[in-house]
Amino acid sequence: QVQLVESGGGLVQAGDSLRLSCAASGGAFSNLAMGWFRRAPGKEREFAAAISWSGRSTDYADSVKGRFTISRDNAKNTVYLQMNSLKPEDTAVYYCAGAEMLGGTVTVGSYYDYWGQGTQVTVSS
Description:
- By secondary structure, this protein is an all-beta fold.
- It is built from no helices and eleven strands.
- It has strands at residues 3-7, 10-13, 18-25, 33-39, 46-51, 58-60, 68-73, 78-83, 92-99, 114-115, 119-124.
- Strands 2, 4, 5, 6, 9, 10 and 11 form a seven-stranded mixed β-sheet that branches. It has a four-stranded antiparallel β-sheet with strand order 1-3-8-7, with no helix packed on it.
């Protein structure tokens, strides 16, 4: 069983930056496609960013493209989400997820096998 633990969330003002981290343990991180999802208050969970097992491919939701960057360090079993130019609508609990898939990025939540507990990001106006 793979365990995922997110960190790096916090309270920031619009225009600020944050970097989220997701540390994996209990499995072969390098074999996992990874992604970030978010759930805003009163909203359904939505896809934010994904990266392939190799790190060669990435995908982003239109709402974050150009502002967020996903990356991974397989030597550290960690995936990151660099969030720049944050907006109040980015306020959400951010979840890290892993999928046992080697073919590319995974943008659909139901395809993921492992989930973290989330980290809160709050962006004030």
